[in-house]
TrEMBL record:
<dbReference type="InterPro" id="IPR006578">
    <property type="entry name" value="MADF-dom"/>
</dbReference>
<feature type="domain" description="MADF">
    <location>
        <begin position="21"/>
        <end position="101"/>
    </location>
</feature>
<protein>
    <recommendedName>
        <fullName>MADF domain-containing protein</fullName>
    </recommendedName>
</protein>
<dbReference type="InterPro" id="IPR039353">
    <property type="entry name" value="TF_Adf1"/>
</dbReference>
<dbReference type="Pfam" id="PF10545">
    <property type="entry name" value="MADF_DNA_bdg"/>
</dbReference>
């Protein structure tokens, strides 16, 4: 059974808010570009980028981390789907909107 905070969190994440998160995420290379020195560093750039997103979306850094992990997992599943033409609209949306995870062109640093 879901707790009240889990239930509230589920209601928080609409498609529009997911799109805002993805847009902001795509602008912070330190959050996804493995070749970025700030990606695996112990420094605070990653945390600062997540905190900036969390403040803009009026939620916590922990919620942002969880949602990013969830979205990335769904994206990876969608990419591995068999090419039978049975991809859902959500899968197509994820593949289109998370394309920045596949390449590093046009990315700004944190």
């Amino acid at each position: 059974m879901a707790t009240s905070s889990e239930s509230a969190n589920t209601k928080f994440w609409t498609v529009e808010k997911e799109q805002i998160l993805i847009d902001m995420w795509s602008q912070s290379a330190c959050l996804f570009m493995i070749s970025s020195p700030d990606y695996s560093g112990i420094g605070t750039r990653k945390y600062d980028a997540m905190q900036e997103i969390a403040q803009a979306m009026e939620t916590t850094v922990d919620d942002i981390k969880k949602k990013m992990t969830s979205i990335r997992a769904a994206f990876n599943r969608a990419r591995r789907s068999p090419p039978s033409g049975s991809a859902s609209k959500k899968d197509e949306w994820l593949i289109k909107n998370l394309d920045f995870l596949n390449s590093s062109s046009g990315i700004s640093r944190c």
